[in-house]
Amino acid sequence: MSDFGKPEFSASGSKPDAPSVQPTDEDVVRALVEIQNASSAPMPSADSPIHVVAERSSQKWIVIAAALAMVAAAGYIGKQEVAQLAKLTGPKVTKRASTRRVDEPAQSAVEQLLQRITMGDSKAADEILAHSSDWTGKTQRTPKSEQLVAVALNLPDLHAREAALQAEIALDGVTVDEAGLAYVKGVLGDPQQRVWALWMLGALANRGVDTDHTAKIIETYLADPDVSVRAASVDALGIVATEETIPMMLDRFRNDPSPVVQERAACSMAQSGMYTQAQRMTAARNLVDWIDDSLLTPQQHAWTVQALGDISGQRFGNDVAAWRKWYSSVE
Fold first, then answer.
1. What is the CB neighbour count within 10 angstroms for residue 117?
2. Burial label, 201 (beta-carbon count in 10 A; 0-12, 13-18, 19+)
3. Which CATH number applies to 188-331: 3.90.1530, 1.20.120, 1.25.40, 1.10.10?
4. Helix, strand, or coil here: 241?
5. Band of pLDDT at residue 33, cut at 50, 70 and 90
6. Fewer CB within 10 Å: C terminus or N terminus of the chain?
């Protein structure tokens, strides 16, 4: 997480005659991104020891508290949505940079619509889904669009996530068709662009471009010797989000040797990615059975419980009987 200045708090609050300062839209965007970043645990390296931590550091929650206060002051989203943003996690994927000429009105339109999505405007999502193809080749990623897409991809509303995904495809200059798929498959051969290409394959598959075949291409990289490629493949399959990809996620969570990949798989099944709640419940069936599995590591057990909590909204900890009773009552 980037090192932002520490916020100053006063136990007595603001002075009665102090002027009220309304945060700008840019401040709110940065605050939302801080919520996302601060609520995500640091990603362990492939060879680092894994420690189960009982609670997050106080410094992270200071950052979250300051960010939430700013968002609340702006009055853009309700308490429930703020709470969701505070706990959501999602992968940070390095994507391909662009040097194309930019149509400034189109670029501004994309970023304004993305910002409206982060503020809970469902009509902005509809506009992106309807018109994003018009921006392809005329726009590119900027620091602002990167932040907005990152926040939108972690909103609880799948419709907002779909729009963010489609905006991201357009910003990277990829067409949502067979020609776009062919281009990304060609880029996949470049090791320096492979992580971006895998993510983009997942995005195209999610938007209906040869979904089953594209998912199979991504699947072949689940056994790659490079842990970053395997992790990117898991992220991409979480974006594809078909029934057929759920067993792949479960397998990588249970059997991949890297805790990095295991965690990505758990996150994709629990909250990140594009799975519906019904699909996440399909994964929960296996997760419930694994709570008391002695073959899993302590960290895998912790992730299993956390994933089930995110999917169900229940907090039964390591109580296997309670989890099984819950699943029996909802299946």
1. 27
2. buried
3. 1.25.40
4. coil
5. low
6. C
